Amino acid sequence: MKILHVMISRLSLPPRDYGGTERIVWGLLMAQQAAGHEVRLLWGNAADLPKNATRFDATKSMREQIGSWPDIVHFHQPFTGELDVPYISTEHGNAEGPRSYGQNTVFLSARHAANHNAECYVHNGLDWTEYGQPHLGKAQNYFHFLGKAKWPIKNLSGAVAVSKQAKAKLHVLGGMRFSLSSRGFYFHPDLHCRFHGMVGGEKKNQLVRQSQGLIFPVRWHEPFGLAIIESLYLGAPVFATPYGAIPEIINRTDIGFLSISYTELADAVHSVHKYDREACHQYAKNRFDHLTMAAAYQQCYDKVIGGAVLNKKAPYCEQSWHQLLPVTE
Fold first, then answer.
1. Alpha-carbon gap, residue 76 to 29, rounded angstroms
2. Could you tell me the CATH number of the domain that includes residue 138?
3. InterPro entries of this UniProt entry (predicted)?
């Protein structure tokens, strides 16, 4: 099968340090090539791209640039235009207000799909060969937060509060000690916190690998949560709020604990010895790898090429899914 992935991103491929969606696309591409498919990319103006990638030309229409080569086009952003070949699109985020989607839109989890009045979803998966071996023995004396710290929906303040209440050290991966971002000001002088900035690659993996667990009290309906499966794979149990896709992923008592209560999360963090690092690793390895994801997308491709649709009706949203959801102290 000839597959074209489309994403207008300025981040390089393969991903260097950051880029969650870019890492998903790259893992999907690698799995599809391993299965014998011919795969190309239509990408943004990134510094480095593989030989099978073409940079998007804003002076030309999408239809013109895609042409008739692919058997299927896979957009990694909402798309509802007219093409000469079948296509699907994956929504990797949450709607920020009323909007509609194409009928062949794929979401990242059952809750993500339901929030957008859809049925079709495919869980993300990662190429675990890029993450090295987990650390399944005794971890170092800290927990971690992994996410964009400047986004209030990711709730760094909550992670700081939980770790402080649990009397646990916290390493923050994804931001600095203070931020003047347009998304809001924050400053965390807490001495039990260490900030690593926008860390990625092997440095990120090593910090997660040695962590006792992920503290992830998000305040929105997380579409999926790559930070969760990365942490699990490297042996770190997850302590999070039960919003969005998180209950679909943390669905066992030996790999994590969910609550909207900071006190309950802090109690679970304090009892981290009850969780099984080996079980965390095996669960993520077996459930959320790039090959499993590629197989699920292949079913979507086959349906659309065969003339079927992925959702009973065109998905839509009548509200923003970026509001802050409640938590309790």
1. 12
2. 3.40.50.2000
3. Glyco_trans_1
